Amino acid sequence: MRSLRKRRTRRARVQLGASDESLTRFSGLTAVTELTDRLAVIDRLDAAVGPIKTRDRGFTAGQVLVGMAAAQLCGEDFLVGLDRHRADTAGQALTPVPRLGSTTAAGLARRFTEGRWAAVETGLAEVHAAAVDLLGRVDPDRAHALTTEATIDMDTTDVEVYGRLKQGVAFNHQGQRVGRPHVATWADTAAVLAADLGDGRDDPRATSAELLGRALAALPAPARAGRVRVRADAGYFAGQLARACLFTGVEFAIGARRTAPLWRLLDGVPTDGWTDAIDMTGAQVAVADYCPNWWPAATRLLIRRVRLDPGRGQVSGDPRARRRRTLHPEQRALPLAQLVEADAVFAYSFIVTNLDVSTSAKTVEVEHWYPPPHAGGEPVPRHQARRRAAPPPLRTPRGQPRLDVGRADRRHHRRVAAPPHRHPT
User: Fold this and answer.
1) Coil, strand, or helix at residue 353?
2) d(CA 310, CA 282)
3) What's the CA gap between 104 and 223, in Å, rounded?
4) What angle do CA 198, 119, 225 make, to 5 degrees?
5) Do β-strands 251-256 and 275-276 pair in parallel, antiparallel, or remain unpaired?
6) How far apart, in whole angstroms, are the C-alpha atoms of residue 419 and residue 289?
């Protein structure tokens, strides 16, 4: 017994001191560098952008962009992170662009004009095409699946910055000084096809059609030849985007704002018109006839409702809460105690689409495809979980009653729904 009592567990000794320069926690950069070399990312960007300096020395445009991207993969969010990344001796031996400092990157970034930024998208399009071609040699089935059906996600978010001398930013409606990126992403590969950077007052609807055109141009040719679908949230609810999809042969699903006409359509949906959604507890979908003026004539309204339990905290007691906007107008202003006693409380979302929703099975498939998969948690509309600032109303010139009223392309007049008082010939 004495010998057992004398035994003590030896604890590992912790030694404090300077980190070993021969070690790095970013060993995954080896795969990044290998992929960058195989796809010739730097060379393709340099060929598209061209020289950004008079003397042929130092870092090129492609090296600056790839070097900044590598630092971001290592968790850096600011230019000064390039200096921390450069201080990692072992990591510099693995990174695709070593010895890139913050001051050097900032100085070279000022040389990027609007034309050169547009050329960056051209260079990345070449990279996407090379990646699909390389994937076809390694995994033909995966490459075929990517090029048969392609989904383009259009979304925007607000990125808060600090400093009153920041250029290209503005205060949003929440009082934050932000930049507002507008991004079109190839959802199947999580690759950015086209992007714009606006300030906190920019409305994404104004340039959505042009952004879509650039995104389609950046898709590899095999993917453009297949089926292409576009999905966007209510921030892109605009007729010009829908018409751009129509004229380019692209199917779309765009979130609609919860306006009074849509609530009236909801009241007309019969009880047996709802179908259970896929992989979403308590969710149901229905279809209604709705086509805004000058939208594609095949446009229909897809309605999704998700049952909420106010007693479990799924509805806030604050009438200004974001979740409250998704409730029916008759329930939106009710106190929380009355919502708990209500027979049913639903959160509603509206989606306008020209996809085939002629049957219940096709309807639930479209709803399941439209938003990103729900990651878990409370059963709320999935695209409502994105915390992003709603764009301000788009200023329209005098005499134009709304955004979507205008003259349609005469070549496609039979495919565009005109308002009742206007009949194109």
Assistant:
1) strand
2) 14
3) 38
4) 95
5) unpaired
6) 15
Q: Quick one: 414 exposed, middle or buried, by C-beta within 10 A (0-12, 13-18, 19+)? A: exposed
Half-sphere exposure of residue 222, counting CA atoms within 13 Å on the CB side? 16
Closest by CA position to 236, among listed 214, 249, 211, 255 = 255
Q: Are 24 and 94 in contact (CB under 8 A)?
A: yes
Is-contact 424 418, C-beta < 8 A? yes
The span from the CA of 286 to the CA of 350, in Å, is 10
Cα gap 96→23, rounded to integer Å: 17
CA-nearest of 92, 100, 121 to 191 is 121
Between strands 177-186 and 149-156, the pairing is antiparallel
Q: How far apart are CA 50 and CA 320, in angstroms?
A: 51
Q: Within 10 Å of residue 164's Cβ, how many Cβ atoms?
A: 6
pLDDT in tens, 239-290: 999 999 999 999 999 999 999 999 999 999 998 999 999 988 899 999 999 9
Q: Which two tokens stand for residue 203?
A: 């409305």
- Report how far apart, in Å, the C-alpha atoms of 238 and of each of 246, 393, 401 are: 13, 12, 14
Give Cβ neighbours of residue 205 (< 8 Å, ≥ 6 apart). 235, 236, 237, 238, 240, 241, 391, 394, 403
Joined tokens for residue 374: 């729900």
Residue in 326, 338, 341, 354 with CA at minimum distance from that of residue 266: 326
Query: Using CA atoms in the order 7, 8, 10, 11, what is the torsion angle rounded to 10 degrees?
Result: 170
Contacts with 329 (C-beta within 8 Å, 6 or more apart), sequence order: 263
With bands split at pLDDT 50, 70 and 90, how would you rate the model's confidence at 15? low
pTM of the model: 0.82
Question: Quick one: pLDDT at residue 17?
Answer: 64
Which amino acid is residue 112, in one-letter code?
A: F
Q: Which of 155, 173, 159 is nearest to 393 (CA)?
A: 173
| Residue-level pLDDT at 2 | 56
Evaluate whether 279 touches 368 at the Cβ level (below 8 Å): yes
Phi–psi pair at 35, nearest 5 degrees: -65, -40
Q: Which two tokens stand for residue 144?
A: 């075929």
